[in-house]
Amino acid sequence: MGHGWEGVVLKLFRGRDFTFTVTGAEQVTDRFRRVHLTDGGLLSATGGAHPTMWVRLWFEKDGKPHQRAFTLVDPDPEAGTFSLEFALHEGPACDWARATKPGDTIDATLQGTGFTLPDPAPSRLFVIGDAAALPAINSLLDAIPETPATIWFETAHEEDRKLPFRLDEAHHTLHHVERREAGAHLVSEVKAALPELLGADHSDAYVWVACDTSTTRTLSAYLRKELGLPKDRVNALGYWRP
User: Which residue numbers delimit the FAD-binding FR-type domain (predicted)?
Assistant: First the structure.
């Protein structure tokens, strides 16, 4: 399968293509599936992985190529392996994740990923996301495991409360927030709690946001314009569109 005009654009932006091979899969919950793969040389070519690192996978729908981004889970550069996690819904990516079996291959392009923690590392972390962002959230918690973190996790289904977080009870506080009003409820919950948690001096804090695009934009504007957080203390990326 060719990658169409999107593939041409990614090539112009120096996207690098790889082919991953499936080695297995596991059903974490009815709505969440983990697929294990070999990396086709990706981790060797990039010199390893950084927290929240993601790749674009290519799927076919109605005879046309479509790409979707997924975060690497537990990348092992020495073994050349990682996993990908899928919050299951309707669509070609999830159809593939449900049906794939060992030996299957999938095309991928590395372009656009990039994330560096502030230096020095923050002494307080605030995270806002949903099931689509869980792999990235866990990779962030793994990167700075002893940093106190408060997490607001939007749940669209009751099973989302059962998803596997890499939590350390001594350092991490998790709040489940039911998805209502197209994300507006999550925004309200964050606005009600975050100012007091941040305090007057928020120079040591870092806020990471990855929700649906509209909610992410609203929260990013709030953090920057109303709370006055500097650009290098906020990372906000819309992961999906309703």
Answer: 15-118
